[in-house]
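Practice problem: predict the structure.
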Amino acid sequence: MDLLEIETERTLSREDAAAWLQELAHQLARNNQLQFRKEGLKYTVRVPGEVTMEVELEIGDDESKLEIELTW
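Answer:
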């Protein structure tokens, strides 16, 4: 099976980032799948009832970083 990787980086307002995270959380809470788009195609990823979540917070003088990783 080929690996499909969808990676994006963009600048958003804090409110828009929160809205995107809320939509992702809504998909996880209400469905057993997540939907993503790449090059005009829609991909659906099935998510089981349990996932492993890793959270990493880096705090620096000029920049901070929060990474949230879900695996299953």
